[in-house]
Every structure is written in structure tokens, then in C-alpha cells.
């Protein structure tokens, strides 16, 4: 292994990048060798690292609908429990493409890794109180809005990522002081209990755990994604710069199929809810009532810049990223 590759992999491994936790892939990655056998002969095998969450439903739907086969691709979808394994997996070549939230890829780029998005993944609904994530407080809390979070203990799934970055931004926008907030790491499934047991004053929670927390008496005091920007894109599919330039045709095929998958998912919410049950343990009653993200093809550059500038302002990045360097 060259010294340069070793340093890149080392940098990736210590970033602590996460979309919904940390972990490792459930299987090893494949390259782009032609698939063989059965009815898939002649298709190019493409490995894609994803996280088993609602946001990734479009790629499963697109695979089921045959959008990738239409482009001559056979998907090898590999799940990781979180983003900590995703970026190193792409850098090492275990994944041809992978899913991650925007901040995680911004941080990797900030550390010198040559990564770029090739397709959108999931976006905020744009509706306050009806978004896929929010800051929840227990019944009777004195916290009524984002500014009241100043000086409080707030849980996020990972520090220095999209959760605390957006929360700090909306606290300041609401007239509060974000510097006094104590952020602590609590996994989303454990957040409702941490809230009920008063281990934290407020918890940032994503669906389907958000609906559970509200059902148990919690109140959403901030829809932080929406309040930062009602057009905020949260995550997307990315790859190495070398893949985009050296395997341009493969990248174009993946992007076309992924875009078709996003459009299909947006138009068929019932199918989204159904397919989520095939790759997660979310039960049918929960899937029936959970809020779905917005799936769309185009990234919103203004919202991207707002997020990147906030990440730089609060120290997650050394400088605001360039949309031209990271977006398709």
C-alpha cells in the first residue's frame, strides 16, 4: 500500500463520520466487474453502501423496479450500521457509491479526501412540525422554542455533524446563544427513553423514533432542518473523484437510475413504507404513520451553502465548502 493511500484511509477512519451512528459494513464490497450467471449475465456489478433507514428506500425501490438493470447495472447493496464505515469504504474501493448525510461528506472533503455527490438522497419536507426530524422536549418542559435550548443539555446521535450544526444555527436565528448548549451523544432509538428519564433536557430525534417520542407525550419545539432552510437536502449518494473521471459512463448510468428511483419513491409513498419493512425492523403500524422525507433529484445549492457556512462557523469545518466541488 502506498504511503499516500495509507494516509487517506487513516484520515477517513478517524473522522467519525456518521449519518445515523457508527459501525461496519455487513459484507465486503465488490468492484465493477461484470456480473455472471442467471438472468443477470452481462450486467455490471455495482456495490453501494447504505444505511438501513427510511432515507434509503428509493434505491431499494429502484432496484425492485428494474431501473438499474435498464442501465446495465446489477446492484450489490451493502448495509452499514452508520456512516463511520461508509466513507472509508468508498475511499478503499469496497463501495463504488455510498449514501451519507451532507455534513459527513463535507467533513471528508475538508480533510482532503476527493469525494463528490452524484445523486440526491433525501430532503426535508419543508413543513415545520411535520418533518422527518425535530428537537423534542418532555411534557411540562419550560423549553418552548429553539432559543430556550440555550444552556440546556440536548442529545444528538453524533457530535460535530448535521444535528448539532443545524440546531446551533436555529438557536441563533431564534435569538438564543448556541455556545452554551451541552450536546451529548444518544442513539436515536434510545433518545425517547433519555428524554423520559430526564437524562437530557431535549433530544434531537429522526423518524420513526420521532413519532414514538411524540406519541409518548413529547413536544417538537424545533424542526431544525426546516428552520435552517425549508429546501435543505439532508443526504445523498457520493463517490470518489477518480470514479467520476475514470468511470464516467458507469457514474452516469448510476446517477440516471438513482434519479429515476428518487422520482418513483416520491410518487409512491405507500411503496416506500412497504419496502422499508424489507430491510429494517420497523413494524407496519409505525411505518404507516411515520413522516417520510422528500425525495427529489435536484440539490438546492442555496440550502447547501447555508449548511456549509454554518458548519464552518461552528467549527465542524475549517472553511465553508464549495457547492461546485461537492454537488453534481
Automatic annotation (TrEMBL):
GO CC annotations on file: periplasmic space
Protein name per UniProt: Nitrate ABC transporter substrate-binding protein
Solute-binding protein family 3/N-terminal domain location: 45-283
Keywords linked to the UniProt accession: Signal
UniProt superkingdom: Bacteria
Database matches in Gene3D superfamilies: Periplasmic binding protein-like II (3.40.190.10)
Signal peptide feature range: 1-18
UniProt entry tagged with the keyword Signal: yes
Homology family: Belongs to the bacterial solute-binding protein SsuA/TauA family.
Localization: Periplasm
Organism: Pseudarthrobacter phenanthrenivorans (Arthrobacter phenanthrenivorans)
Pfam families hit by this protein: NMT1
